[in-house]
Design goal:
Layout lengths: L7 H5 L10 H9 L1 E6 L4 E3 L7 E7 L2 E6 L5 E7 L4 E2 L1 H6 L6 E4 L3 E7 H8 L3 H27 L2 H9 L9 E4 L4 H7 L4 H13 L3 E4 L2 E4 L2 H5 L4
Antiparallel strand pairs: 1-8, 2-7, 3-6, 3-8, 4-5, 4-7, 9-11, 10-11
Helix pairs in contact: 7-8
Amino acid sequence: MSAPKIRAQDFLSQIPLFQGLSEYELDNIAAATTQVRAGRGDVLFKQGDPCHGFHHVVYGQVKLLLRSSLGDEKVVRLIGPGKSFGEALMFMGKPYIVTSQVLEDTLLLHIAKEGLFAQLDHRPVLARKMIASLSQRLYSLMSDVEAYSLRNGTERVIGYLLKDGPQGNHFDVILSASKAVIASRLNLTPEHFSRILRELSEQGLIEVKGRTITILNLPELMKFRG
């Protein structure tokens, strides 16, 4: 038995880009929206496929990756609930430059560009929101480049663990994906990532149990952040 369809408008209205639109406008965008259900390991699109719109994650998780001719994989971005991807290429009319693979059972909305462009033609506020969203994405990309270029591996790992901000001197961080995927996202080998976690654990700064990382000494950990 197939899973019941959701009412796309209920989720479209929660996307910052579409907040403030009227029911009529949301209905028009919903008419150009397709619900995509995918399981772990499913590929949504491959590098070189045409881009006809953008995706929004309702629940689950997706990774964007680059794959070499030898099969080596580099995770570019991890995307969870409430996040979207593909907007820039949609505007440029370019094919995808990455491959998208699902990490767990996921529900996405695919908003076709025709429906969105029709609203952009009549809603300057929506156009400004889209520009702001893409600008924020560019800012995040530049922050990543800075981290890879100017920070060592330990600083990158600690920065990732504290990316949501300190929650006291003693708190848990749940890795959103496998350690291998997180390592690739941080531009580290899995072995290097594991070694850094082990070294921080041996210094009494963290405790590692599966995907749960317990921060034991935040003040001392912050000294290594860079």
